[in-house]
C-alpha cells in the first residue's frame, strides 16, 4: 500500500503534514469538508483540488475549476495530472511537497 504525504512548506498553514492512503481521495480547499483545509489562504477556493489514486495505485491531482488554479511543479494543472515523489503543488500562497512511501 502507498501512503502519500503532503507537507506544507510555504503559506499560512506552513509546517502541517497530511497523509493520504492509496484507497482514498482527499479534497483540498477552504471548505469545512476539506480533508486538507487551507482556511487561512484567501487565494484558495472552498473546493479547490482533489488528490486521488487509480486502481493501479498511481496518484493524481485534479483542479476543481478553482478561481486561481492549481500549479504542479510550476505548470498549471489541466485535467487529471500524475503526481510523484518530490513534486510541489501550489494552491494560492501555499506550497505542498509530496513524498510517497510504499508499505
Secondary structure: elements and pairs:
Blueprint: E1 2-10, E2 17-21, E3 26-29, E4 36-37, E5 49-53, E6 59-63, E7 70-72, E8 75-76, E9 80-83, E10 88-91, E11 94-102
Parallel strand pairs: 3-4
Antiparallel strand pairs: 1-2, 1-11, 3-5, 5-6, 6-9, 7-8, 7-10, 10-11
How do you describe this structure in short?
With 103 residues, the chain is mostly beta strands. 0% of the residues lie in helices and 50% in strands. A hairpin with a 2-residue loop joins strand 10 and strand 11.
Q: Could you explain how this protein is built, in words?
A:
The protein has 103 residues and is mainly β. It is built from no helices and eleven strands. It has strands at residues 2-10, 17-21, 26-29, 36-37, 49-53, 59-63, 70-72, 75-76, 80-83, 88-91, 94-102. The chain is globular. The termini are close together.
User: What is the rounded Rg?
Assistant: 12 Å
Q: How much helicity do the residues have?
A: under 10%
Structural class: mainly beta
Ranges where pLDDT stays below 50 over 5 or more residues in a row are none
The average pLDDT score comes to 94
Number of helices, counting only DSSP H or I runs of 4 residues or more: 0
- Report the order of strands and helices: EEEEEEEEEEE
Tell me the distance between the termini: 5 Å
Strand content is: over 45%
Strand count, sense and barrel status of the largest sheet are:
6 strands, antiparallel
Major beta sheet, strand line-up: 2-1-11-10-7-8
State the shape. globular
Count of strand segments: 11
What tags apply to this protein structure?
5-stranded mixed beta sheet; single chain; 103 residues; mainly beta
Amino acid at each position: 500500500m502507498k501512503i502519500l504525504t503532503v507537507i506544507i512548506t510555504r503559506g499560512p498553514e506552513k509546517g502541517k503534514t497530511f497523509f493520504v492512503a492509496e484507497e482514498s481521495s482527499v479534497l483540498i480547499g477552504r471548505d469545512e469538508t476539506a480533508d486538507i483545509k487551507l482556511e487561512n489562504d484567501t487565494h484558495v477556493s472552498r473546493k479547490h483540488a482533489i488528490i486521488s489514486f487509480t486502481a493501479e495505485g498511481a496518484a493524481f491531482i485534479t483542479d476543481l475549476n478553482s478561481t486561481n488554479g492549481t500549479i504542479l511543479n510550476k505548470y498549471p494543472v489541466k485535467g487529471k495530472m500524475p503526481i510523484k515523489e518530490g513534486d510541489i503543488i501550489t494552491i494560492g500562497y501555499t506550497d505542498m511537497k509530496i513524498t510517497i512511501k510504499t508499505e
